[in-house]
Amino acid sequence: MDFKIEAMIGLFPILFKALGITLKITFISTVLSVLLGILIAVIRFFKVKVLYQVTGLFVSFFRGTPLLVQLFLIYYGLPQIFPIFINMSAFVATVLGLSLHFSAYMAETIRGALSSVDKGQIEAGYSVGMNTIQVMVRIVIPQGIRVAIPSIVNISIDLLKSSSLAFTLGLADIMAKTQLEAASSYRFLESYLAVALVYWILVILLERVQKILEIKLNRGY
Amino acid sequence: MNKTDILEVKELHKSFGDVEVLKGIDFSLKKGEIVSIIGPSGSGKSTFLRCLNYLEKPTKGSIVIDNLKQDAKNHKKRDVINFRQKTSMVFQNYNLFKNKTALENITEALIIVKKIDKRSADKKGKGIMKKIGLEGKENFYPSELSGGQQQRIGIGRAMALENKVILLDEPTSALDPELVGEVLDIIRLLVSEHISMIIVTHEMKFAREVSDRIIFMEDGIIVDEGTPNEILVSPKNKRIKSFLGKRS
């Protein structure tokens, strides 16, 4: 059997150095996609004129086309019409792509969760003199997010794993490092197994975060 | 508008699609007066109350509360928030904010809407918690409280705002019979403080006890009004007699 455990273990320090990039991409993109998702969800919740149609198209496009295609469109395609994007780094392009792509999923999840907050509380908010923004920010969104947490974490797990596509734009994340190492050492099984383990552990940690969030937010329910 | 009046409604109409629920209501409320509205389900009682708080937008007519006017014909959207702050609503299903504690339910609007600093709001909120007999439950969430306790907080929330008129929409209808009493006690407390109130209720005995005036509504209009004695004890109107189960 040709399996060198040392080759696998030897890869971990290298992956560890690149871990920061993967985590940074995942963290920033998750935050951005949640924020954008909330914005789109609120627009769709209130059926705001024009924006409702625009966001409908947005969600349809970013859910309806492959992430890889979107990343290429952003990184290689956009500079063609918008020169401002010529100097865009692979990091920014990846974060932009992941944020837009996953915000479409976040939006649908959060919109559903917002609708689950009972209308009576919205009326109560209005009746005490709050405006729509106050009602949404203070009452509806916090309760909607609580309902949406399992799905939001689910989507960020997907996002974390999808960040491995960043290597196609030449970004030195853990996947890119693995590729390089595997290609030079010919230790494909060990290398990919090592990186698989790293992703798996990260996902397990995310699941932990979900548990903690749920316990915290479930107080009072 | 009479000088002693705090609220005046003229020719108020409200339709939902093709269905006209309010068919021209004229009504006024004196400062400190307590009026109960009774009548069969679907008569428009709740809709009328909700119009006063502008949770429903009237289709025709005008409402003046404490010199602030809303006219259905040229209704100004930016005035609605000010207008709503003239009244406080107590809901049948309490409608407490589920993500807020008992105390926060009372102080939320004080801080966010009335812009009172948190410390004074908390102090006021705690005073109200005591008043409604829920001292010590400040940090409980609505789900941890009984229906009666939740409705007391609903009333406390309305009290805290110190708005001109408190509107109570069937405040005891969703409660177990044994919890009705504690909520009525809190309303009696408001009565003793001479707060202007309009109560939609099915509690006839209570209405008779606390009201200065009773209004009987049916089919979107005010059929009759008078003192509790005139309407509830010896009604002349045949329809009211049968509604109250009295033999004519």
* Oligomeric state of this protein: heterodimer
Tally of individual helices of chain A: 8
CATH topology of chain A: MetI-like fold
By CATH, the superfamily of chain A comes out as: MetI-like
* Alpha-carbon Rg of chain A, integer: 21 Å
Distance between the termini of chain B: 37 Å
Total domain count of chain B: 1
Describe the fold and architecture.
The complex is a heterodimer of chains A (221) and B (248). Chain A is mainly alpha-helical and 221 residues long. Helices cover 81% and strands 0% of the residues of chain A. With 248 residues, chain B is of the alpha/beta class. Helix content of chain B is 36%, strand content 26%. Chain B starts with a strand and ends in a 5-residue tail after the last helix. At the A-B interface, helix 5 and helix 6 of A face strand 6 and helix 3 of B.
Looking at this protein, list some descriptive labels:
heterodimer, A: 221 residues, mainly alpha, MetI-like fold, B: 248 residues, alpha/beta, Rossmann fold, 6-stranded mixed β-sheet, 4-stranded antiparallel β-sheet, 10 strands, globular
Which helices and strands, and how do they pair?
The complex is a heterodimer of chains A (221) and B (248).
Chain A: H1 5-45, H2 51-64, H3 67-81, H4 90-115, H5 119-127, H6 132-162, H7 174-185, H8 188-217
Chain B: E1 5-16, E2 19-30, E3 34-38, H1 45-52, E4 60-65, E5 68-71, H2 77-84, E6 87-90, H3 102-112, H4 118-131, H5 147-160, E7 165-169, H6 177-192, E8 196-200, H7 204-210, E9 213-218, E10 221-226, H8 228-233, H9 238-243
Parallel strand pairs in B: 3-8, 3-9, 6-7, 7-8
Antiparallel strand pairs in B: 1-2, 1-4, 4-5, 9-10
